[in-house]
Amino acid sequence: MCVVGARPNFVKATPLVHALAAAGVRVTLLHTGQHYDKALSDSFIEQLGMPEPEYHLGVGSGSHAEQTAAVLVGVERCLKASMPDALIVVGDVNSTVGAALAGAKLGVPIVHLEAGLRSRDWTMPEEINRAVTDRLSDLLLCHCSEAVENLAAEGISGTRVALVGNTMIDSLFRLLPTARSSDALDRYGLTHRGYVLVTLHRPALVDEPERLSAVVNVLSKVAEALPVVFPLHPRTRPKLAAAPADAVQRLRIVEPLNYLDFIALQAAARLVITDSGGVQEETSALGTPCLTYRDSTERAITIQHGTNRLVGVDPHTLAAACAEELARPRRRRGVIPLWDGAAGTRAAASVLEMLNDRAKDESARVAA
């Protein structure tokens, strides 16, 4: 069983689900409904070619406790009904840790796809989710060597850990030709390298009116040079009312984008500004300059390879970084190892090895 609940989960899980299916493994998909906007869930399933979920919990929004509790209760019910050989959880959202808790308490082996990432910022709910999920997992699939090192420092190593690469990049590379051939730029009135793309959704930013207003003011200044396209995450939309109306009007506010449109806009943007972890990875693979508006990042590998720049959360620093990035010519950026489009196949091989080893252990136990 594979549990997905938020946009990045779908993108990361698809290559592993496809590779397991190709190896003859039946994978049941469970959609928690943590992202319930169609552009953030249903359209992603369709465009990525994932199987239709056999279970849909419909947990929706709520506090972290409410979401995690609803996932825990719902996943436990589904696991008891099907008792799969393993439970795959993805990323670092509330659906991830809730599902892992349910599986661990029922004795179902847990596979964590995208394990080992650490920001070391315990004010981020995702950091708590990552650490707890990794502690509960039987197989930890890592997308970079830094993640392997993080786990080793926490006493998790050996056959439990596999360096497989980044499955999110598998999905990106597979669908990039389709995205680039679409009319997305024309529909939004944009030109190649002629705009800035922005995604902001983290509570620490959008839930504080003064902080969000300061960022919007910076973006409105950037919009004097290039159009600034701002797809609004559902949680950001109501918060934007507190920002200066004249500054908001200078931005191109659009509805949440489906997957193909979003990667088309990332690929052709002059600059991306984000607080998303996945966007840091996608822009790195695409070679699009990225500024991450956060104090810390669990994707430090993107900083090390020069594909991403962490600017903190001071609006003046963001303004200076935007001006600097837009003034310099585009430059060649580093290639991150194993972000090559074949991570899903490697991840599936690791899962199959774990299942075979457990089957052998069970046979030996029964024989004894």
Q: Could you tell me the mean pLDDT?
A: 93
Biggest sheet, open or closed, and with what strands and sense?
Answer: 6 strands, parallel
Helix content: 40-55%
The CATH architecture assignment of the largest domain turns out to be 3-Layer(aba) Sandwich
The number of helical runs is 16
Give the total of domains. 2
Separation, N- and C-terminal Cα atoms: 30 Å
Which regions have little confidence, pLDDT < 50, spanning 5+ residues? none
CATH topology of the largest domain: Rossmann fold
Give the beta-strand count.
13
Structural category:
alpha/beta
Would you write up a description of this structure?
The chain is an alpha/beta fold and 368 residues long. The protein folds into two domains: 2-166 and 339-367, Glycogen Phosphorylase B (Rossmann fold, 3-Layer(aba) Sandwich), CATH 3.40.50; 183-327, Glycogen Phosphorylase B (Rossmann fold, 3-Layer(aba) Sandwich). Helix content is 49%, strand content 12%. The chain is built from 16 helices and 13 strands. Helix 4 (94-106) links the parallel strand 4 and strand 5. Helix 10 (209-222) packs parallel to helix 15 (315-327). It is globular and about 75 Å long.
